[in-house]
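Incident log, structure service

09:12 report received: a user says their structure output differs between two submissions of the same chain.
09:20 pulled the input from the user's history:
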Amino acid sequence: MALESGELVFPEAGGEASGRIVALAASATTGLDSRDAEMHERVLATAAHPEIVFEPERVEVDRVGEDRAEIVLHGAFRLLGASHAVALPARVERLEGDRVRASFEVEIPYVSWGLTDVSN
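09:34 re-ran on a clean worker, output below:
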């Protein structure tokens, strides 16, 4: 998915976090046009819910190196208008100044989060 905007603010040692990461639901692709159309219409409902949002609440710092760290982002993941508490392990690398790049993956439990299961 394409990132529309993103900012995470937290102290180096961890603790309270703020910010917002917004992804564009319509940019999600699987590589198969017909499957993508069904995903956008029946699963993600991108017309009604164009954004997928993560809002951090706190950060735990697991391992720290000179320019890298492993952290856990705790916060709310908003999908289809509903908010879900998540803990996301992430890798962070320091860029210039006080900027960092964070990489993480989100595992979405379709049925329990209210998404339509379109599998056969």
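09:41 both user submissions now match this output. Likely a transient worker issue. Closing.
09:42 reviewer note: The first helix runs from residue 33 to 43. The helical segments are 33-43.
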